[in-house]
Amino acid sequence: MVLRFSMFAAAVLIAGSAYAADSKAVSEEDGKYLDADGNPTYNIQADGTVDWYTYSGFRMYHAECHVCHGPDAMGSTYAPALKDSLKQKNIDYYKFQEIVSSGQQNTAVQGGSASVMPAFGTNLNVMCFIDDLYVYLRARSDDAIGRGRPAKKETKPDAARKYQDECLGPPK
């Protein structure tokens, strides 16, 4: 786990914050789809079937993020719509990871109060699924999927199951 976060920190420093506008999947590794820059992205089939990671991201988002950011990433009076944030604020994969793991403070006071995104870097229920969250929000940001639980999903890849067991520990 420590190695993953160290590699992440190095990647953030190297990558900068250029937003990859093209979310099209150009490759696939163990059921995870990647864009031309090698960032995780979604893959939605013509019949509406979503890849496992988009579906998992939906589940994790609604378990951990929707309380503040609203159902389906639509925002709330408490926190912004993440559906819009990826594009409007040019939040790329690395910036997303940085904000989620380290938190963020908005010191520009609007409406009488500053906003604070807490750090989730030690929350395994978030960090073990951070790619899934990003993929789901990317699909929502591109209007590639609508509101609500995706009706059809790909089967969970063995690689996803193995990674989950390694990150969270085996089921008890």
TrEMBL record:
Residue span of region Disordered: 146-172
Superkingdom: Bacteria
Record key words, sorted: Signal
Cross-referenced SUPFAM superfamilies: Cytochrome c (SSF46626)
Listed Basic and acidic residues bias regions: 146-165
The keyword Signal is assigned to this record: yes
Record protein name field: Methanol metabolism-related c-type cytochrome
